[in-house]
Amino acid sequence: MQELKKSYYNLPLGSKERFLFTGKYAQALYFNNEKVLADQLLNDNIQLAKSYPDKQYYGYLNCIAAMNSFNDHSFEKSRFYLERAKSVLPLITDNSTKGYIYYCVGWVMTRQNKEDEAVSQFHKAISFLEKSPRTAVNVTRKLTIYKELTAIYANQRNYDFQEKYTTLLLETAKEGQNINSLFDAFMQAGYLFEEEYRANYGDRSLLEKAEQHYLDAYHLIKRNPKDLVNPTDLAYVSVNLANLYHEFYPENGSKKAISFAKQALDIAAETGQYAITIPAYGVLADESFKLGHREEGIKYLQQALYNLEREPHYDYQVGLSLYSRLAEVSVEEGKYEEAFKYQKNYIDVFEKAFNSDKLDKTKQLELKFERELQNQKLMRLRLEGEKKEQRIRLMKVLSDRQNQLLENLKLNELNRTQQLKVLQLERDKKEQDLQLSRLENKQRLQELDVSKKQIAFKSRMNTIYIWLFLSCLVVILLLFYAYWQRSRALRQKEHMHELEMEKNNQQHAIKNLTAMLAGEEKERTRLARDLHDGLGGLLSSTKLGLSSLNHNALGDGIVKDEIGRSITLLDGAVDELRRLAHNLMPDLIKKYGLQEALRDYAARMSQANCQVECEFLPFKSNLNVEKEISIYRIIQELVNNALKHAEAKNILIQLSSHNERLHITIEDDGKGFDMEAVDLQHSAGMHNVRSRLSFLDGEMKIMSDLGEGTTVELEISMV
Q1: pLDDT for 273-307, tens place per residue?
Q2: Helix (H) or strand (E) holding 717
Q3: Which has more confidence, 669 or 626?
Q4: Class of domain 593-717
Q5: What radius of gyration do the chain's Cα atoms show?
Q6: Which is nearest to 131 in space by CA: 95, 82, 165?
Q7: Are 660 and 715 in contact (CB under 8 A)?
Q8: pLDDT in tens, 375-387
Q9: Of 646, 627, 643, 648, nearest in space to 693 by CA
Q10: Domain range 1-132, its CATH number among 3.30.230.10, 1.10.357.10, 1.25.40.10, 1.10.1740.10
Q11: With b meaning 16 or more CB within 10 Å and e meaning fewer, what string describes 145-182?
Q12: At what angle do helices 625-641 and 684-696 cross, to 10 degrees?
């Protein structure tokens, strides 16, 4: 910073060189938390550049001021500077400066979520920079534009265009030998391959490329620490590496993840940039929990929360995540009062996020139309918080009850020990009685020997007759037993044959049903893609044509109104087409599983007059993708029936799993129907539901009365 300051004041006041150097110096001041000095420096030089014949420096400095103001959340101030820069575009002859102004416009649009318009501005900027001489400044500006385009396509998950501009970014940065630009290029490349790996976990080479590019960026900064404009760059790459090793190398990457996270904390402490410490503390907390150091993990989470509250611009999503995690940990450790506190803080943060006055005007306009839905979401969150408190209280009661049961078990064990001792004494007494009885029997036997000898002859003869009779009887019984065994074997063989035939028939039916469902899903996927790629592209092209015609129709107000109405109808058609294509091809199941797909489906199917909600009680699915898709289709058919016929205001979908069985309930508060008057056997939709249930080895129960709504209960095996 001292070298930049010295270089700045060594340049003549009002010179071209000083105007150009002002932008670099002001950005360095801004990133080192000297924002007031940066604003003063820019405004002074803007006034000097305004009187300069060539307006290129005036436009350039206004662009720097616009971006700094936007970063500081001064959106009106940023728009003012940007309009001043755009106003002098016709007076500027320098193509490089024109390209920079278009880049600045695209930069602001990107952060206003106007990515399509931003891409157009970036392409204009590149066209002007291509016409300019190949200087270090122009190379740096092209690198910045490539970086923005890479980020846009990364956000859209368009990996082809993202890889294209990442490659251009790397090649241009290596040619320009600019340390900061090369660092950005390595970081963008690492992020590209990391996101591609998230989309394709089977290709480990993508993960290795991401790791290598992050390490290249890390070593580049370590070798050239004096060339940094932003002192938090090293902390930034350290956090990315820590997250990479923590998430994708759980077995052998813990030490590296901890090392890089602690390094990021040290750098943040030196620069005062506490925002970067929050993800670092998150990694350290997860690693501590994994190693069993729960107290240390809790301290890391609390420190992350403390640093978040020190930030001037509070990130509500991060705050919600931290309070939720701390509440879960408190419940696991039985600290129910702390869990209550964190849960209440979670609700307070959500309310602050909802009522925040720091939202830009675009978001405020959107909130005017969505406020009622947000209020409902807030009420549901409060109800969920109350439910969680009730569950925590119940868990505490259950814990006390378990302790009491444990004491009862100990008492029962003591009673059983005493009973065993009594039984042992009784057994010893019985053995003594038995010995005495044996002696008496021996004496009686001796007395009977005399009488036995007298009747020995008679007995011997009787014995012979008896043995002859028994021998005949045994022969008859053996013959009967052999006949019975033979008959039984024949019956068993016939029964086994019948079972085998029934099993083959069932397997054949399952194969036919599986093929039918697979063909149906394949046809749904093909139809969804044809709708999206064919009709969707045609509607979008028609919209673009009408937009262009509307822009060119300057004189005729009636024509413009009719074209605007047509564009509005096309927007509705495109939205309906996207919804239909998404219902036909639920890609979320393959990417994120049944739970996220059902949440997304419930959100999409909710209407102004009917709210669809999805709840997951203790639920864990180990089903394959094909079975999850079948379950999704069953729920989709039942919810669609309720939306079409029930005239319901609320539809609730509940899923829970227990003892390898999946329980699903779809309940609505509609008009219901008479179970005896309605024939559900000949309904095509219910036939499809029963076919899929047969494939899933499931059962269905329907309960409904007129005016009482309808409840459908499903039970499916997960084995």
Answers
A1: 777 788 888 888 888 888 888 888 888 888 888 87
A2: strand 710-717
A3: 669
A4: alpha beta
A5: 39
A6: 95
A7: no
A8: 555 555 555 655 6
A9: 627
A10: 1.25.40.10
A11: bbbbbbbbbbeeeebeebbebbebbbebbeebebbbbb
A12: 150
CB atoms inside a 10 Å sphere around CB 712: 21
Q: Does the 231-301 domain belong in CATH 1.25.40?
A: yes
Structure tokens at 177: 């030998």
- Contact predicate 26/64, CB 8 Å: yes
Q: With bands split at pLDDT 50, 70 and 90, how would you rate the model's confidence at 90?
A: confident
Predicted pLDDT at 653 = 94
CATH 3.30.565.10-classified regions of the chain: 593-717
Per-residue three-class SS string for 308-324:
HHHCCCCCHHHHHHHHH
**Mean pLDDT computed over every residue of the chain:** 78
Domain with CATH 1.25.40.10 in the chain: 1-132
Q: How far apart are CA 491 and CA 371, in angstroms?
A: 73
Burial classification of residue 501, based on how many CB atoms lie within 10 Å of its CB (0-12 exposed, 13-18 middle, 19 or more buried):
exposed
The three-state secondary structure class of 50 is helix
Cβ atoms < 10 Å from Cβ of 316: 15
Determine if the pTM surpasses 0.70.
Answer: no
Half-sphere exposure of 306 (CA within 13 A, CB side): 7
- Check pLDDT > 70 for residue 501: yes
pLDDT one-digit tens code per residue, 574-612? 665 655 555 555 667 778 888 888 898 898 888 888 999
Measure the CA–CA gap between 286 and 153, rounded to whole angstroms: 30
- Please give the single-letter amino acid code of residue 160: D
